[in-house]
Write a structure and sequence with these properties.
A hairpin with a 3-residue loop joins strand 4 and strand 5. By secondary structure, the chain is of the alpha/beta class. The protein starts with a strand and ends with a strand. 24% of the residues lie in helices and 25% in strands. The strands form three sheets. It has a six-stranded mixed β-sheet.
């Protein structure tokens, strides 16, 4: 069983954009000197439920629904490209995609490479520990601990800043949580909504 502790707030934005191609909401077409590309290529990395994931071989999730709604309103033929998360920014820079929607947090470093829309979703980081763990209640308690994270996430970035922590990175939140269940790590650091979703899908009991 998993006990779930709220971590310190880290604001996230889940829309990464190149050159203000998608500035705010439906201000898509005015950003182009000519007609927007058809199809309109949008990068995502579909291992981040409930925002983007695959179900029955189809892309689904909050971000996917949002981008499709934007495409409908702006009369754009959205063509999703499922890429590794660490390949999304290079794809934007190379202009092999026009935009990206993939649970990407706005950071100063990323903002130097790409442009972002206004935030449309904010979430906090959370720490998941086993129910019998009585010592970890905040980020300070993670010093020197074994931690699992999802690769490329804000949780992974924050975990690497914890003094003495041994951080293991996995392709999904579910795999990181499985490492915790198996007792090979002492905590999982990830976005709160993603962690809650993974716990629910795994059928685990949750103690808040």
């Amino acid at each position: 069983m998993i006990k779930f502790w709220r971590g310190r707030a880290v604001q996230r934005v889940i829309f990464a954009l190149l050159g203000l191609v998608l500035a705010i909401g439906l201000s898509v077409i005015p950003a182009f000197s000519q007609t927007p590309p058809n199809p309109f290529r949008v990068a995502t990395e579909a291992t981040f439920p409930p925002f983007e994931f695959q179900q029955g071989g189809q892309l689904t999730g909050f971000d996917i629904d949002l981008m499709r709604a934007i495409g409908k309103e702006a009369d754009l033929n959205i063509d999703f490209r499922n890429l590794p998360f660490d390949g999304i920014i290079p794809a934007l820079q190379a202009r092999t995609v026009e935009a990206a929607i993939s649970g990407m947090t706005i950071t100063a470093e990323r903002a130097q490479a790409i442009s972002f829309s206004r935030p449309y979703f904010r979430a906090g980081l959370a720490i998941a520990v086993r129910e019998d763990n009585k010592t970890i209640k905040n980020f300070e308690d993670l010093k020197g601990k074994r931690i699992a994270v999802q690769i490329g996430t804000t949780g992974a970035l924050e975990a690497t800043k914890i003094p003495g922590a041994v951080v293991s990175q996995f392709d999904s939140a579910a795999l990181a949580l499985q490492e915790l269940i198996n007792g090979r790590v002492e905590a999982v650091v990830n976005d709160k909504p993603v962690t809650l979703y993974a716990i629910k899908e795994a059928g685990l009991r949750l103690s808040l």
